[in-house]
Amino acid sequence: EEREEVEAEVSRVNQAGEALEQISKVSSHSAEQVGEISQATLLQLQLTQDVVLAVERISNVARTSRRRADEAILTTDSLTKLARQFAVSLQPLRDCSRDDLMHGGELGYAEPDMPGDLNPLAPAMQPA
Question: Which of 62, 78, 91, 97 supports an S-S bond with 120, CB 3.0-4.6 Å?
Fold first, then answer.
């Protein structure tokens, strides 16, 4: 009977040892997984930071593009106004040229190298 008790005790010790060995394996595997999760988390953090930097760069480029587009609009508006002012300023010269041509077509004086639209100004440009 004592022998049976010893054998039973040895069997329980062996089972406990196997259970502890199994627990050790599971713990080691869990520790490996925790390490992998930690590495994956660090990698994810780095990639997230890279994405944030890329979005910031895109935002800066968009702001710069918007500013340049606004500047181009202002320049275009200024040039349009200047062209209108120039057209208004030239209108009397055009009218003068038309009037002279409608009254006989003789301008009195024509500079050979002067564009036709400016020929009506030629008499006024003659030295006195």
Answer: 97
Contact 110, 122 (CB under 8 A): yes
pLDDT tens per residue across span 47-76: 999 999 999 999 999 999 999 999 999 999
Phi-psi group of 60: left, alpha or beta (phi > 0 → left; psi -120 to 50 → alpha; rest → beta): alpha
**Cα three-residue angle 12-15-19, rounded to 5 degrees:** 135
Which of 102, 111, 107 shows the shortest CA–CA distance to 120?
107
The DSSP code for 127 is -
Full-prediction pTM beyond 0.85?
no
Take residue 41 and report the two structure tokens written for it. 């988390």
DSSP state of 111: -
Contacts for 125 with CB less than 8 Å, ≥ 6 apart: 111
Question: Can you say whether the dihedral through the CA atoms of 71, 74, 79, 80 is positive or negative?
Answer: positive
